[in-house]
């Protein structure tokens, strides 16, 4: 190789490295300002405030990214109505929404499986399916036609069946009952004669107090006490057959997601996973304290639903789930969820169930 050619190639290599440096630097220094809406009101514990909440998620992302990704959080009604997050993210009006996937059943029935399935898995099992059993991949397959991606970013753990003005003694007591209950469980109750209502959290107490509804399900002792539901109804039924593990959803516009550098995508994913675990831990402490107060100091009567009512609810759940299998995508998600659940149930009998029956007491 001639001396002139070697000098030319050396200079070209140096020039290339110099020209390439600003591109890398620009990618690493670019800042993104996003908006995130929520289905829950500003200041709502767990959902909008406190460990693992939407505002906590935004704070973690900002700090982990050193300010490169800043997310402005809006509570329900501040920017859009509570249940319009799906459409807002899809249209690109906002980049993110923080809610629960079962609010979007009118868009795609399969979404319900990514929040909670009646008589389904607990927190540990749900996380096993989502993170290691293909659940998140299916979640994104469901949302791909809408131009969105999603991931878990919170979990309430097991919820409570809900508040009832009158005692439930038999299945017949459910007929004609007006109840706030979303998701698949709402369809199950409807099959048993319940008049199902879907209301945002902030509307539940006045509706229950005024008799617009006779019963209501929300989350658990801490959240329910905060809404004052114990002041409108005294029968508090356990445990949440309808939502044994309720996942919060971080919904993201895919076009916006694809514009993020890989390191910022990793930060969002890891911050979301952290909030998923941290929020559930917070719920355990908060609900333990609140339940004790409700029973000891607030005159609440806490009891499980009668066995025949549970049996009827389970039978109707099987029917409702079977009806949804007519949709191929819903069937694909259902089959994956149930196959994982079957394996997890066998393991749980040996581990968790044995602990509760033999060790804990």
General description of the model:
This protein starts with a helix and ends with a helix. It has a six-stranded mixed beta sheet, with helices on one face. A five-stranded mixed beta sheet has the order 2-1-3-10-4, with helices on both faces. The mean pLDDT is 92. Strand 6, helix 6 and strand 7 (195-197) form a beta-alpha-beta unit. Helix 4 packs across helix 12 and helix 12 packs parallel to helix 13. The chain has helices spanning 3-29, 54-64, 85-91, 123-132, 135-143, 183-191, 201-210, 221-227, 254-259, 262-297, 307-324, 328-350, 352-359, and strands spanning 32-38, 69-74, 96-99, 148-155, 162-164, 178-180, 195-197, 215-216, 235-238, 247-253, 301-304. The protein contains 13 helices and eleven strands.
Contiguous low-pLDDT stretches (5 residues minimum) are none
User: How many strands in all?
Assistant: 11
Sheet with the most strands: spatial strand order: 7-6-8-5-9-11
Mean pLDDT: 92
Share of helix, binned: 40-55%
Oligomer: single chain
User: What profile does the largest beta sheet have?
Assistant: 6 strands, mixed
Tally of individual helices: 13
The end-to-end distance, rounded to whole angstroms, is 83 Å
Basic shape: globular
Element-level helix/strand string: HEHEHEHHEEEHEHEHEEHHEHHH
Structural class estimated from helices and strands: alpha/beta
Entry keywords:
361 residues, alpha/beta, six-stranded mixed beta sheet, five-stranded mixed beta sheet, 11 strands, globular
Task: Explain the layout of strands and helices.
Blueprint (H helix, E strand, L loop, with lengths): L2 H27 L2 E7 L15 H11 L4 E6 L10 H7 L4 E4 L23 H10 L2 H9 L4 E8 L6 E3 L13 E3 L2 H9 L3 E3 L3 H10 L4 E2 L4 H7 L7 E4 L8 E7 H6 L2 H36 L3 E4 L2 H18 L3 H23 L1 H8 L2
Parallel strand pairs: 1-2, 1-3, 6-7, 6-8, 9-11
Antiparallel strand pairs: 3-10, 4-10, 5-8, 5-9
Helix pairs in contact: 2-10, 4-12, 5-12, 6-11, 8-10, 12-13
């Amino acid at each position: 190789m001639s001396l002139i050619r070697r000098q030319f190639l050396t200079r070209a290599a140096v020039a290339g490295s110099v020209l390439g440096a600003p591109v890398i630097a620009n990618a690493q220094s670019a800042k993104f300002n996003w908006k995130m809406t929520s289905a829950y009101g500003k200041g709502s514990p767990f959902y909008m405030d406190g460990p693992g909440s939407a505002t906590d998620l935004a704070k973690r992302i900002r700090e982990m990214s050193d300010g490169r990704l800043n997310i402005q959080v809006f509570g329900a009604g501040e920017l859009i109505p509570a249940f319009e997050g799906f459409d807002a993210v899809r249209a690109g009006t906002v980049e993110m929404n923080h809610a629960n996937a079962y609010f979007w059943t009118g868009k795609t029935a399969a979404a319900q499986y990514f929040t909670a399935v009646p008589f389904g898995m607990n927190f540990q099992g749900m996380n096993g399916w989502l993170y290691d059993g293909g659940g998140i991949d299916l979640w994104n397959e469901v949302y791909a036609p809408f131009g969105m991606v999603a991931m878990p970013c919170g979990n309430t753990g097991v919820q409570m069946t809900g508040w009832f003005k009158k005692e439930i003694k038999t299945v017949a007591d459910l007929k004609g009952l007006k109840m706030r209950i979303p998701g698949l469980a709402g369809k199950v109750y409807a099959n048993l004669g319940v008049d199902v209502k879907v209301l945002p959290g902030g509307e539940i107490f006045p509706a229950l107090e005024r008799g617009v509804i006779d019963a209501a399900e929300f989350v658990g002792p801490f959240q329910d006490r905060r809404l004052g539901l114990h002041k409108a109804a005294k029968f508090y039924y356990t445990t949440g057959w309808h939502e044994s593990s309720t996942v919060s959803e971080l919904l993201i516009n895919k076009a916006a997601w694809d514009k993020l550098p890989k390191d910022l995508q990793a930060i969002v994913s890891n911050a979301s996973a952290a909030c998923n675990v941290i929020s559930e831990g917070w719920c355990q402490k908060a609900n333990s304290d609140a339940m004790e107060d409700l029973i000891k100091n607030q005159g609440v009567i806490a009891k499980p639903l009668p066995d025949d009512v549970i049996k009827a609810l389970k039978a109707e759940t099987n029917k409702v789930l079977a009806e949804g299998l007519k949709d191929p995508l819903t069937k694909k998600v259902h089959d994956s969820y149930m196959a994982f659940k079957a394996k997890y149930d066998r393991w749980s009998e040996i581990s968790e169930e044995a602990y509760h029956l033999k060790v804990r007491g």
